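For the sake of transparency, this paper describes our internal protein records without simplification. The record that follows is passed on verbatim for readers who wish to inspect the format:
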Amino acid sequence: MDNMIQPTITPVHRTQLPRFTGEGDWQLRDMTLDSTKVAVSGHNEDTRTSFIDLFALSIPDSSSPFITRFYSKEFKNPSRWRPRYVSFLDDSRIVTVCGDQLEVFNIKTDDIPTYSDLLRDGEANCMTVREGEIFIGLSSNEVIVFDFSLNKIKTITLEGLVGDYLTDITVYGDNLFISAYKGIAIRYNMEGVMLHEYITTGYSYAFSITVSSEFGLVFVSCRYLPAGVVVYSLSENHKLFTFLVIDEWLLRIRINDVNRFMFIATDEGTLTVYSTASIFTFSQLKEELSLKLTQTDCGNLGHYFSLPPDQVQTIITSPLHSKNCLLALEERGYIHPSNVNRLTDALTELKINHTHLLTETYMKLRDQETEYDRFLAGLSAHLPFSITEKLCENFEVTDENKNTVISSQNPGLSFLLTIDEMGIINPSDVSKLETPLEEYRLLQAVAKIHEYQSLILSDKTKAQDEDKESLFLKCLQQKMKSWFETMTPVPWMKSCQWKSNDLFIASRLVLTNSGSKISSREVDRKCKLHYLDIFTDERLKAETRIILEGQPGSGKTMLSSQLAYDWCCGKLMDIPMVIYLPLKIVDDMTIIQAIKMFYIREGIPITEEDIESMLNSDKKKVYLILDGLEEYNGVTKDGSPSEVTRVMTKEKLSNCIVIITARTDYAKHLPQGPMLKIGSFGEDERNEYIEKVFSDDQKRQEEVKELIDNVPFILDLCNVPLLFVLLVHNIDRL
């Protein structure tokens, strides 16, 4: 098996097919589907009968049952009772084969077969349908092809399968994809010439195979423990990634490209459905890449992204060179869960071991996530393990399901999917989570729920009834408010008892010019500016480019996002528009494209042209806050000025008032202009923060203040806001 822990993905739905819930020795033999229906077939060992069941398919987000049986047929022929296979021909017809008997039925009229024929070449062992042709794999190395009237077209003899026989077959383009009894999976052309054998290292017994044209992937399911799925590139046949599933004795795997679900059926009649968006996470992507990137690759990537030479050297000499390389790229904003396109470009250009296929696949799968998928994934990050256990009790999750939740790789997400299956939450209503999360003081998690509920509400309103500017302002305010309220003021905690606004303490600002070496400590406190003075100070009123400079941990992001949040909450009535944009998401986009991606949901009728028009208008002041220059990838392939440089030199968005935050060593590369240096935390700021954190414990406040004042090295650390926050919230460990 691969040298990494294989993730077990959590299903969105799991059910026992109706006839398997009663008595009788029923066994499933085949499963197929189209965009709206599922067909299964099998037999009963006791009665020697075979069956076909057809189900209407509802997406898991629907309030109706996931599958509803609408057609069922049993075949009582003792000479032909197993195995039976089934496929859809069209909306009204199915084809089925059992032993050597091939039949077509019209499911909307009667049960009399419209066509029937005998296979004269042997007995069937699998079947599939494609564009007017039926492909039947025999209990040998042959595939027989018929048209829909059951006229035989040809026989394909598969090379390399002497003494073996087919267990599953899929047709895509001019290729056959088969799995065989000896546990192998192979790709053939229509003449039976072997094109590629899919190696399932670490897994036993490949038994089923399917192709997703939507994603350009081949999926091979392996029947025995460990029961898992191996995924390959359709275009280049390379193995990409693997994952485990919760079922055993896997019989069939199929992909519904329309609804983007993966279906797995077992011998015992269990049908399990997985979202394709969940099968390859950002963490898995980094793990797979770390297995493939060599020291040389990491060095080349470091140079490609213009990492500092000493950092590149540290990376390539580390035993964990690949993981450290990816961490460095993530810290600088070159890769993040929502976008790895820049890395794809680098891997493609540097020709690193076909790794671009991984990043391309990740983006394809991710693009299919729904708002509900993203909500569940985002909320799960706010649920600590201890709270997840308590929530299982709150919602009376069964012991079996609770054990599954606790033992999963992502207990928070597993819990949310479990209560979704229980009907406690659904895509239209997640409000039942709000009260327990409030009781556990997970305020960021509660804010996440409010954010999602507001999205649901906005979906029900008619956006077209508003003018573009009003709609854009509403999108800005809703997104910024929810984004800020889900941001924790304690960086190492995903959710806590305080909101960011509750603990915000503004460091005083020193107004100078870029390039000045003056220290904020050299300026008298009375001469320093409050953060809201940015909008009102006479010396800044005529300026359209302002630099907010500070050392790491000084609070640049907190201060700049607080500015935007204050505007969203109506505290800056004289300011028409404030747009906050983290530069790490801009990557190779324009500022306008990034604003649209960050603020405008799919379906909202606001275009990039609309946004550009509003930002370039001279009728209203627009404040654009660009946060984190050090996290922005400013290198262009042709050496031309970066997007941010063009904005800061007023080549673009010249009518906007732009505030950009940057670390000291990055700010010096910006054009000359007014600079606000973020000051260090003084005694007043420290005391105010301590009083907020320990608001109900006067004695504790005094103890913390005394400790800081009496220990010199601690006092020095507390000049940096981030280190001070770290100290206050871990004071009991000292």
Residues 520-526 have pLDDT under 50 and may be disordered.
